[in-house]
Amino acid sequence: MLLYVTLGTNDIERARRFYDAVLPVLGYKLQRLSDEEIGYSADGDTRSRLWIVTPFNRRRAAAGNGSMIALGAETRADVDAFYAAALAAGGTDDGKPGLRSYHANFYAAYIRDPDGNKLAAVCEKPE
């Protein structure tokens, strides 16, 4: 259903440093770069699926209350690595890695990027 997702930033270079450190642990890498936006996707994907951008209207970017992007992880170890990489790169904790009540194998970690955008890494496989 989703074609791509866009998150705002107030500092594109800071955002790039953060996402370049965090997304590779889930298999995503920088695919597109300009002064106003950066795009990430998995190898072999023909388009960037996650864009980090300076707002088109030039107003200050702000995180949405109740908004979150959940990224798929292959293993629970990948979720743990995502969480550790995010904290090391300047993100903040919004929920340590662990099983959640959504179903028996829903293993997730929640962080906020330096602009306050909420992201999750989720593995739904049993281990």
Automatic annotation (TrEMBL):
Residues 1-124 form the VOC domain. This is Catechol 2,3-dioxygenase-like lactoylglutathione lyase family enzyme. It comes from the Bacteria. It holds the Pfam family Glyoxalase. PANTHER family: BLL2941 PROTEIN, GLYOXALASE FAMILY PROTEIN (AFU_ORTHOLOGUE AFUA_5G14830). Gene3D superfamilies: 2,3-Dihydroxybiphenyl 1,2-Dioxygenase, domain 1 (3.10.180.10).
